[in-house]
Amino acid sequence: MIKTDQEFFRVAGQISRYIINQNESSKKNHDVIKMFLNTKDVESLKNKIINMYKLYSHAFRLNHKKFEENLTYIMNYNSEAKTKSYQNVFLNGFLDDNMFYKKSE
């Protein structure tokens, strides 16, 4: 469960990267991050993630427990936090090794 704004933005970065990686295009670049960083707040970032999830939903397998749990956690998180205040945390999550590719321990 996510309890802080920092946790939210870090996990949102991880999820955003994972969703973007489902795009089968060979021309992926860091321009894609702007659509997330340009959101206003937690709610608009969640909406952007939902829209991207719908766009690439065909690529997600069911029963990817870690992904599904974390997506649920960020969708249920509520805060007045502004994206601009947490861009560094979001970027850290987006650029770090993605937890959704790691085997469960």
Topology:
Layout: H1 5-20, H2 34-37, H3 42-55, H4 65-76, H5 87-95
Structural account:
By secondary structure, the chain is an all-alpha fold. The protein has one domain (5-101). Helices cover 52% and strands 0% of the residues. The protein has helices at 5-20, 34-37, 42-55, 65-76, 87-95. Helix 1 (5-20) packs across helix 4. The radius of gyration is 13 Å and the shape is globular. The two termini are 18 Å apart. The mean pLDDT is 92.
From the N-terminal CA to the C-terminal CA, the straight-line distance is: 18 Å
Low-confidence stretches: none
The coarse overall form would be: globular
Count of beta strands: 0
Mean pLDDT: 92
What number of domains?
1
SSE string: HHHHH
Instruction: Report the biggest beta sheet as strand number plus sense, adding barrel if it closes.
Output: none
Radius of gyration: 13 Å
Helix coverage percent of residues? 40-55%
How is the quaternary structure best described?
Answer: single chain
Give a brief rundown of this model.
With 105 residues, the protein is mainly alpha-helical. The chain has helices at residues 5-20, 34-37, 42-55, 65-76, 87-95.
List key phrases describing it.
single chain; 105 residues; mainly alpha; 5 helices; globular
